[in-house]
Amino acid sequence: MERVKFVMEILDKNLMMVNDTGYVFDDGSFDETIHCYGVAYFCAAAAHRRGLDAELGFIIGLMHDLGRISNDDYTEGHGPTGAIMVQRILADSGLFDEKDIEIIANSIHRHSKKKKIDGPYEEALKDADLLERVFFMG
Fold first, then answer.
1. I need a surface site. Which of 29, 58, 101, 126 has the fewest CB within 10 A?
2. What secondary structure letter does DSSP report for 111?
3. Tens-of-pLDDT digits for all 138 residues of the chain?
4. Short-list 112, 133, 113, 111, CA closest to 122
5. Which residue segments constitute the domains of the chain, with CATH numbers given?
6. Is the distance from CB of 67 to CB of 81 less than 8 angstroms?
7. Measured between alpha carbons, how far is 60 from 129 in angstroms, rounded to an integer?
8. Nearest CA-CA partner of 95 in 12, 37, 8
C-alpha cells in the first residue's frame, strides 16, 4: 500500500497543475483525474483477472499518462516520455525493485500502440485505457 500511496501523491501533484488550468480535451468531455484513476482501477482488475499483480496493475494505470500530463504531450510520444520519467521517479523512491520498474516503464512506453500485441501488463493497460474511455465518454 505504501507504493500505491507514493504513486498517488506523484500523480496528484502533476494533476493539480493540469487541473488548475482547467484542462479538458477539445470536446470538453475529458478530465485527467477521472481518466487516470479510472484506468488504474480497470488495469488492476484486468491484471488480477489475468493472474498478475493487481497492485502493480493499479500503479501502471495511475502513471500511464504522466508523460502527457507533465509535458502537455498529446502524441503517441507521451508513452516513451512518461516511461523515462517513471523509471527515474520509481528508482529514486527506493520502493520498487528493478523488475517492477521495468514492467511499469515498458507498459507505459507501449500503451499507445494499441494494435501491437505486447506482454500481459502492457495488454492489461491498453485494455484498461480503452475501457475507461468507453465508460467515461460513451
1. 29
2. T
3. 899 999 999 988 887 776 544 445 555 445 777 888 999 999 999 999 999 999 999 999 999 988 777 666 565 667 788 899 999 999 999 999 999 999 999 999 987 776 778 789 999 999 999 898 888 766
4. 111
5. 2-137 (1.10.3210.10)
6. yes
7. 11
8. 8
